[in-house]
Design a protein that fits this description.
CATH superfamily of the largest domain: Type I PLP-dependent aspartate aminotransferase-like (Major domain)
Cofactor: pyridoxal 5'-phosphate
Distance between the termini: 26 Å
CATH topology of the largest domain: Aspartate Aminotransferase, domain 2
Number of strands: 13
Number of helices: 14
CATH class of the largest domain: Alpha Beta
Domain Aromatic amino acid beta-eliminating lyase/threonine aldolase: 4-287
Family: Belongs to the threonine aldolase family.
Modified residues (N6-(pyridoxal phosphate)lysine): 202
Largest sheet: 7 strands, mixed
Order of helices and strands: EHHEHEHHEHEHEHHEEHHHEEHEEEH
Structural class: alpha/beta
Radius of gyration: 21 Å
Strand order of the largest sheet: 2-8-7-6-5-3-4
Number of domains: 2
Keywords: Lyase, Pyridoxal phosphate
Helix content: 40-55%
């Protein structure tokens, strides 16, 4: 058996989801006539405290639709240098929307550098500079190891942006993980931002789909952009049915994933070849590097060799580049799987002779 720690996107739908998908009431969503999608969108808006919501096939499409709805051609979008929107979405804001990305540093906790943020916001007084239309946040933060932004930090960034007439979008692919970790309702985390995207297909375990929320006027724009991006899926209530189960049954259990990730982190910390700070692990994701007996950090190629060895011993993990290894816990994994994964990793380290 392979223990798959590459991502929480590998989750399988629950039996309740499969039953709900089988029995889903369907209609044509392009005409806004799919009752299951409509119920999902209404529930998502209610949970996040926003006026309206839109079901989209993927988190990337949700983020792209948000950027294209907030920013016009020639208007800039401020992103963190470690953000998913900047690194992993094909440069969509620039490619499709004609909106240049202005990159500011991301701190290790996932927070944007506030001084650089303030300096980056531009109005239309200087014809040489693209005026700023949008600031993008990420919560939890992928490349920072699943770190969370509390309401105070979100509000600080939103206040800076809103004071200059700039909108704020949150890439909240794993916002429910942040909510559980902080003990704060999602609507509080979403309160200060103008739009939020969250995924149903990660820790919440639905097979497909994400949600974009915001004002009614914003979602009206986003609905048009979704069509532009090819996201009209007709009788997609068969997918939305799993999303309803995800929101109704799968949120609180995310705490189990966090506990398992802590178990994994403390186990890894016992191996002298692994550099990790378990205290920084707060959700379902961790990052670590490897080093040899001379305390030299392994290169990306050497980390790849370690991942191949770990796979031989039944453990799948991923790399974030620069020798950084990522592991993510999720639905379908229990405490015994974490123990087995630690054993497989130990064998891989021995074979690497580190």
């Amino acid at each position: 058996m392979l223990i798959d720690l590459r991502s929480d996107t590998v989750t399988q739908p629950t039996p309740a989801m499969r039953e709900a998908m089988y029995r889903a009431e369907l209609g044509d969503d392009v005409y806004s006539e799919d009752p299951t999608i409509n119920r999902l969108q209404e529930l998502a808006a209610e949970i996040t405290g926003k006026e309206a919501a839109l079901f989209v096939p993927s988190g990337s499409m949700g983020n792209i639709a948000a950027v294209l709805s907030h920013a016009g051609r020639g208007q800039s979008v401020i992103v963190g240098d470690q953000s998913h929107i900047y690194r992993y979405e094909g440069g969509a804001a620039s490619t499709l929307g004609g909106s240049p990305m202005y990159v500011v540093p991301t701190h290790s906790d996932g927070m944007l550098d506030l001084d650089r943020l303030r300096a980056a916001i531009a109005d239309d007084s200087d014809e040489h500079i693209a005026p700023t239309a949008l600031v993008c946040l990420e919560n939890t933060h992928n490349r920072c190891g699943g770190t969370v932004l509390p309401t105070e930090q979100i509000a600080t960034i939103a206040d800076i942006a809103h004071a200059q007439g700039v909108a704020v979008h949150m890439d909240g692919a794993r916002i429910f993980n942040a909510s559980i970790a902080l003990g704060v309702p999602v609507n509080e985390l979403a309160h200060s931002v103008d739009s939020l995207m969250f995924c149903l297909s990660k820790g919440l375990s639905a097979p497909v789909g994400s949600i974009l929320v915001g004002s009614k006027a914003f979602i009206h724009k986003a609905h048009r952009v979704r069509k532009l991006l090819g996201g009209g899926m007709r009788q997609a209530g068969v997918l939305a049915a799993a999303g309803l189960v995800a929101l109704e049954q799968m949120v609180e259990r995310l705490a189990e994933d966090h506990e398992h990730c802590k178990q994994l982190a403390y186990g890894l910390a016992d191996y002298p070849q692994i550099a990790i700070d378990p205290e920084r692990v707060v959700t379902n994701m961790l990052l670590f590097t490897l080093h040899d007996s001379q305390q030299r950090t392994l290169s990306e190629a050497e980390a790849g060799q370690f991942l191949a060895k770990a796979r031989e011993h039944g453990v799948l993990m991923g790399t974030m580049g620069d020798g950084l290894v990522r592991a993510v816990t999720h639905y379908g994994l229990e405490a015994e799987h974490i123990s087995a994964a630690l054993n497989g990793i130990r064998k891989a380290l021995i074979e690497m002779q580190l």
